């Protein structure tokens, strides 16, 4: 039996996507929460410092949510994340969610992420800030706190068509597929604190999030 170990940060949407695909496909796996500052175990397991990283039998490491998803589909083809005839549109939607939607929801979640790492100690918060401000510029994190209302409204605008799409269906394209897992992962940016901050009036999207969140190998989400 293949031994799977998923290395993750709890706040990372791409880790959430992979974790839920694993839950859906059903193999037993170990979840390893990587210390944000001390990443030695992750480095030894995968050869790099990024998550998500999946190791198989301690000998193969796959890094990145898309690569991991495709490897899992090869190893565990049923239940599939690519319903017949719909692979292309699932891939296209997932790329949109993991790029444009991620940018909006990430910016909205910065205050919660800052608080998350602050609770873990000044070294964790300092490294978290350093990484983001190297990428986005000095003062980025504090600016996102000041811009939270505007960022939330941008997120709302991007989420509104999805809420409408889910009005009469359980999943984006009828049957569950890769795009649903990608959307779920991004929505976790609005929920990793334990409080679901998807706009309260978007009841279809909130129901979708809870539907996806409850998936396990014991349930058939398409039933």
Task: Give your account of this protein's structure.
With 223 residues, the chain is α+β, with helices and mostly antiparallel strands. It folds into 2 domains: 8-75, Glutaredoxin (3-Layer(aba) Sandwich); 87-213, Glutathione S-transferase Yfyf (Class Pi), Chain A, domain 2 (Up-down Bundle). The protein has 9 helices and 4 strands. The chain has a 4-stranded mixed β-sheet, sandwiched between helices. Helix 4 runs parallel beside helix 8. It is globular, with a radius of gyration of 17 Å. The model has no long low-confidence stretch (mean pLDDT 95).
Which keywords apply here?
four-stranded mixed sheet; 56% helix; 2 domains; alpha+beta; 8% strand; Glutaredoxin; 223 residues; Glutathione S-transferase Yfyf (Class Pi), Chain A, domain 2
């Amino acid at each position: 039996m293949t031994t799977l170990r998923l290395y993750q940060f709890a706040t990372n949407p791409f880790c959430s996507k992979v974790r839920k695909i694993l839950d859906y496909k059903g193999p037993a796996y170990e979840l390893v929460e990587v210390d944000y500052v001390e990443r030695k175990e992750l480095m030894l397991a995968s050869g790099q410092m990024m998550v998500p990283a999946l190791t198989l039998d301690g000998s193969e490491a796959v890094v990145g949510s898309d690569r991991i998803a495709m490897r899992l589909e090869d190893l565990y083809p049923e239940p599939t994340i690519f319903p017949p005839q719909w692979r292309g549109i699932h891939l296209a939607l997932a790329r949109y969610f993991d790029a444009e939607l991620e940018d909006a929801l990430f910016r909205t979640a910065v205050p919660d992420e800052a608080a998350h790492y602050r609770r873990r100690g000044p070294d964790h918060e300092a490294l978290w800030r350093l990484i983001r401000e190297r990428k986005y510029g000095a003062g980025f994190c504090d600016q996102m706190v000041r811009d939270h209302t505007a960022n939330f409204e941008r997120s709302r605008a991007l989420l509104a068509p999805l809420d409408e799409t889910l009005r009469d269906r359980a999943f984006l394209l009828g049957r569950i597929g890769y795009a649903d897992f990608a959307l779920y992962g991004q929505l976790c940016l609005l929920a990793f604190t334990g409080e679901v901050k998807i706009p309260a009036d978007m009841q279809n999207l909130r129901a979708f999030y809870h539907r996806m969140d409850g998936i396990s190998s014991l349930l058939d989400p398409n039933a």
